[in-house]
Amino acid sequence: MQKPLLSVEHLCKRYGSNTVVDDLSFHIDPGECLGVIGPNGAGKTTTLRMCLGLIGPDAGAIRYFEGLAMPHDALAIKARLGVVAQMDTLDPDFTAAENLLVFGRYFGLPEHTIRERIPRLLDFAALGHKRDAKPSELSGGMKRRLSLARALVNEPGLLLLDEPTTGLDPQARHLMWERLQLLLQQGKSILLTTHFMDEAERLCGRLLVIDHGRKIAEGRPRDLIAQHLEPDVVEVYGQGATGLMGQTALQALASRTEVSGETVFFYTRDSGPLLAALQAWPQLRVLHRPANLEDLFLKLTGRQIREGG
Fold first, then answer.
1. Exposed/middle/buried for residue 36 (C-beta within 10 Å: 0-12, 13-18, 19+)
2. Under the phi-then-psi rule, with left for phi > 0, alpha for psi from -120 to 50, and beta for the rest, what region is 40?
3. Phi, psi at residue 99, to the nearest 5°?
4. The domain 6-225 belongs to what CATH superfamily?
5. Residue 257: which H helix or E strand, with range?
6. pLDDT by residue (tens digit) across 204-216?
7. ω into residue 71 within 30 of 0, thus cis?
8. Which H or E element spans position 223?
9. 237-249: b (≥16 Cβ within 10 Å) or e
């Protein structure tokens, strides 16, 4: 059995009286994509920063590869990691190719080795035609793909991606997902934090759901949905939809009912009787669909909007 590439055990981080990460444990196996999801302020970014050695934990252990410990072996670990941060960290004064060249030098790679890799990395990022363009000349999606290519310059054993598609339009997100899928097909291992449930479902073989710094669920996406949710969801919206909450007979046809804004969500194991009963309100819009990761996320963490990172 292969050893985990990253093993986090009983990690804790406090700022004054505020516990940001609370006894958190998880691991990443070779060749898998582990998604870390949770609401704002859940502790995702703080956990990632500790895994990168940017801040120290108050308790717990972080081990990489063959027994290397963070932060004690930080330099040896970082030499084998690829990182794409939330914020753009490309050098604005260098071209796309020069960004890769300079970054490769930080790892002590021979210049001829870096130059050999640059065309392949730019082609992988679909940026071969932009090798001489500076970041200011690139779209948001191009910048993110260049950041991903830069993270691969040292041929890392593990990629850590912090919300890599935030701020991108749908087309750019889909192209980024395609690149990440290619990496997984090549056997790369990825730790991914994301706010997009469709992204998590597409890319991640396993999910870690955290809230208030604690693990609240872990497993394969489909398994978590089956474990925590009814299989069918009926959404009802339109003028007067929230008035359905007063219909006792209607609510009895669902296992669980929730309201978010002007939409009523009916969670059920048998949607047929409910859909038939809803025909008595023809003015309302009805959407029948299978339960998904967004339903899981909202059930486990709540529908309240939270501020903070």
1. buried
2. beta
3. -60, -40
4. P-loop containing nucleotide triphosphate hydrolases (3.40.50.300)
5. strand 256-260
6. 999 999 999 999 9
7. yes
8. helix 221-228
9. beeebbebeebee
pTM: 0.88
Integer-rounded Cα radius of gyration of the chain: 23
Query: Are 183 and 203 spatial neighbours (Cβ–Cβ below 8 Å)?
Result: no
DSSP string, 61-114: EEEETTTEEETTTHHHHHTTEEEE-SS----TTS-HHHHHHHHHHHTT--HHHH
Domain formed by 230-290, architecture = 2-Layer Sandwich (3.30)
20-60 pLDDT tens trace: 999 999 999 999 999 999 988 888 989 999 999 999 999 99
Q: Which residues of 280-298 are buried (b: 16+ CB within 10 A; e: fewer)?
A: ebeebebebeebebebbbb
Query: Amino acid letter at 197?
Result: M
Which residue ranges of the chain lie beneath pLDDT 70?
1, 303-309
Question: How far apart are the C-alpha atoms of 264 and 245, rounded to whole Å?
Answer: 8
Q: Torsion angle of alpha carbons 118, 151, 35, 181, nearest 10°?
A: 0
Q: Which of 146, 150, 52 is nearest to 105 (CA)?
A: 150
Q: Which of 223, 210, 199 is nearest to 37 (CA)?
A: 210
Q: From CA 81, how far away is CA 161, in angstroms rounded?
A: 11
Give the separation between CA 25 and CA 23, rounded to whole angstroms.
Answer: 7
- What is the token pair recorded at 128? 């071969």
The structural domains of the chain, with segments of one domain joined by +, span 6-225, 230-290
The single-letter code of the amino acid at 269 is: R
Q: Provide the 8-state DSSP code for 259.
A: E
Q: How far is CA 147 from CA 67, 168, 239, in A?
A: 28, 14, 45
DSSP, collapsed to helix, strand or coil, labels residue 39 as coil
